[in-house]
User: Which sequence fits this backbone?
């Protein structure tokens, strides 16, 4: 496992992040405490140091399990959680990105995680009703209090993140160091605006669902599997075609489809850190194997051709008109 700094901070984070959304058996299929302990130990033994959870994962059980498993070794990890999702559906102020929910959510998470600070605190999703100025100032206050070291934002438009970080720069507040978004061969939407924005701001990109909800794991292209989460009939022909392309590359390289899919997300940009979420030690071990997979350029091209992804306007238009706009300089400028 190698490390990069989190955004424009000095905090070292591992190539793969471990998602704890599967920690706990509440609300569906998940991992029991003993299996969570095995997963966490194996991840740590491989050199992984980033643990990602949220106040609402497994009804709070994910944070509680992490708090129990980190006793005596909490400071060896980069511990991250999120707020935004409601703490009480009957309370109008139970959710959102406003100062009141931030304060109450932060205290709840710190108590469950049995720690006095978070290494990274993520805004979970954009809240249209809260001024971004309020959110950024409240987050900066949390940093200044020592309860939060760094901040990030998940599932928000590029213009919101850009505005927030520009405000932080102008006003001397803490800026977002990370962006958390879905990214896989089945969902390349972030290549349009979010990924270029993150690269321009020097942000780390934590990629969730890098296996496309398991479609790219090989479960739907390699015969029957008792651990399928989706009804095969619900998967589009396009997604199955991409999954078959991943399976073909995996067969050619002698690795697993999951390893190919994870390796591809890392090829696209050095800013990207896939979040792996395992329900068993075997799944995690397989995912960690992606670090050793090298994808030749021709195989990357084959995978991307299968996605039929189009960036759309304005990206495609700018590319098409570049020779007309810049003349000979279009090809002569590095």
Assistant:
């Amino acid at each position: 496992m190698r490390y990069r700094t989190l955004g424009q901070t000095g905090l070292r984070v591992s190539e793969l992040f471990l998602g704890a959304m599967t920690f706990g058996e509440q609300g569906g299929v998940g991992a029991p405490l003993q299996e969570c302990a095995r997963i966490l130990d194996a991840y740590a033994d491989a050199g992984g140091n980033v643990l990602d959870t949220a106040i609402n994962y497994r009804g709070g059980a994910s944070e509680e399990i992490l708090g129990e498993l980190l006793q005596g070794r909490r400071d060896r990890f980069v511990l991250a959680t999120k707020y935004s999702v409601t703490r009480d559906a009957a309370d109008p102020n139970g959710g959102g990105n406003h100062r009141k929910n931030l304060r109450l959510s932060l205290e709840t998470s710190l108590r469950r995680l049995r720690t006095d600070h978070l290494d990274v605190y993520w805004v979970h999703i954009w809240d249209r009703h809260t001024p971004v100025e309020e959110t950024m100032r409240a987050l900066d206050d949390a940093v200044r209090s020592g309860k939060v070291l760094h901040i990030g934002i998940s599932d928000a438009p590029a213009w919101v993140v850009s505005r927030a970080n520009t405000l932080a720069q102008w006003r001397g507040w803490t800026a977002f160091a990370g962006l958390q978004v879905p990214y896989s061969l089945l969902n390349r939407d972030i290549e349009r605006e979010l990924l270029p924005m993150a690269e321009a701001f020097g942000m780390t990109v934590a990629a969730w669902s890098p296996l496309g909800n398991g479609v790219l794991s090989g479960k739907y292209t390699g015969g029957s599997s008792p651990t399928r989460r989706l009804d095969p009939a619900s998967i589009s022909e396009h997604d199955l075609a991409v999954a078959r392309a991943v399976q073909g590359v995996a067969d050619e390289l002698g690795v697993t489809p999951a390893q190919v899919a994870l390796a591809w997300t890392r090829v696209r940009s050095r800013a990207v850190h896939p979040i792996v979420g395992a329900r068993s030690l075997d799944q995690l071990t397989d995912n960690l194997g992606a670090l050793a997979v090298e994808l030749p350029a021709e195989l990357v091209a084959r995978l991307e051709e299968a996605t039929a992804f189009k960036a759309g306007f304005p990206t495609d238009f700018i590319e098409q008109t570049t020779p007309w706009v810049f003349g000979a300089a279009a090809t002569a400028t590095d």
Summary: Residues 324 and 330 are 8 Å apart (CA to CA). The longest helix spans residues 237-253.
